[in-house]
Design goal:
Strand order of the largest sheet: 1-13-12-11-2-3-4-5-6
Shape: globular
Number of strands: 13
Structural class: alpha/beta
Largest sheet: 9 strands, mixed
Distance between the termini: 29 Å
Number of helices: 8
Bound molecules: magnesium ion
CATH architecture of the largest domain: 3-Layer(aba) Sandwich
CATH superfamily of the largest domain: HAD superfamily/HAD-like
Order of helices and strands: EHEHEHEEEHEEHEEHEHEEH
Length: 264
Amino acid sequence: MEYLFRKWDDIKNILRYKYLLIFCDFDGTLTPIAKTPEKAVISKNTKELLRKLSQISDCKIVIISGREIKYLKNKIQLKNIIYSGNHGLEIDGYGFKFKALVSKKYKNVLKIIKNSLINKFSDINGILLEDKDISLSIHYRLVNKNNIPLVKAIINDAVLLYKKNMDIKVKNGKKVFEIMPPIEWNKGKSVSQILKKQQNLFKNKNVYPIYFGDDTTDEDAFEILRNKGITIFVGKTKLSKAKYYLKDTKEVVKVLKCILEIRK
Ligand SMILES: [Mg+2]
């Protein structure tokens, strides 16, 4: 990966004339990771920046996150952008209205797992279950370090059989486990679908994707877009499929500001 600002002069020239499709993850990309998911705050400044970018012709914003769309809309409150929530299992906005169909059986399994976790975690502090209707997040950021192996063992135990039967899929993120439907769908597939639709809508334009993300679930999107546009990992790692990196969320805001300046 290369530091994005080291290549900025070249990139600036690409960004000047294309139809930009800017994908931004939410937690850890637009907002610093918070101690609890409810505490994540998107600054007024960043919101205003997204609003201005969304009003530029030939520029479209997509917010893509593991969160529910309901949550994203509520936090960002912008109309003419595309929201992709639940890791791409839901898409809404600008010609899109999509929610992955999941079976009754899956929903039942999700409920069983949730209830069993509530039960098993009753005497461990710091676990937060985020019920996102078609997926379930188990956050353990606030759990005492000494209890983490136990927490992981409990989760593994609760999902083992269902995972084996392919009733569910389990993904790890930053201090979170995600229980998802057992379908071939992820942020990469969602990005691909949104990109294709935009390319169809704007055939005469050169639709150019840019993707900002910070977590393991963003890797599928980095892979899909690697040779199609600009992929940017946010944070510290050497193991990402993105082509570029930025150090933190502040630098993401800086890049968005630069794009606004170029396109104003
Ligand atoms: Mg993230």
